Amino acid sequence: MARTYGSFSQNTAPRVFKTALRLFAQYGYAAVSMRQIASDVGVQVGALYNYTPDKQTLLFTIMRDHMENLLNAWEGRPQSNDPLVRLKDFIKFHLTFHLHKTDEVFVSYMELRNLSEENFVVIEKLRRNYELILEHILERGSNDGVFHISDARVTTLALIGMLKEVGTWYRPEGRLSSKEITNIYQDMVAHFLGVDSPVMPANR
Amino acid sequence: MARTYGSFSQNTAPRVFKTALRLFAQYGYAAVSMRQIASDVGVQVGALYNYTPDKQTLLFTIMRDHMENLLNAWEGRPQSNDPLVRLKDFIKFHLTFHLHKTDEVFVSYMELRNLSEENFVVIEKLRRNYELILEHILERGSNDGVFHISDARVTTLALIGMLKEVGTWYRPEGRLSSKEITNIYQDMVAHFLGVDSPVMPANR
DNA sequence: GTCTATATTAAGATAGAC
DNA sequence: GTCTATCTTAATATAGAC
Question: Does residue A204 register a pLDDT over 60?
Answer without folding.
Answer: no
